[in-house]
Amino acid sequence: MFDWIDYNWVKAVHVIAVISWMAGLLYLPRLFVYHVAATPGSEHSETLKIMERRLMKAIMTPAMGVTWLAGLYLLWDGGWMSDGWMHAKLTCVVLMSIAHEMMKKWMKDFANDKNTKSQKFFRIANEVPTVLMIIVVVMVIVKPF
To answer: Is the overall model pTM greater than 0.90, yes or no?
Structure first.
């Protein structure tokens, strides 16, 4: 059906999208750490709002979409759905998507000067995508089950 699509090109696009999405998932909570310390309405706070919004809208959300689209194609074309490692990987990707949506909510809280979370909270939130990424890489490379 999709014989004109080259698997390796889709895989390359997928990896590029994953790297872009992960960069945002790792950087945005760091911006939140700095934003907590900024006085609401200050020039610094307003600059952080712009940076956060641009990161989310111009990089993270499109990269997440491409990651999912290319990944689902690779899943279908590669016939990986019955493999246990893929189930673990998909679980982590769903959790990353939930983290993405949570970050979008936190970004909106900052945009409305309604953040109630601490720097420590965002430092911990910053580790979640890292742990999920490690699990995904191990699942894809090692395929332990």
So the answer is: yes
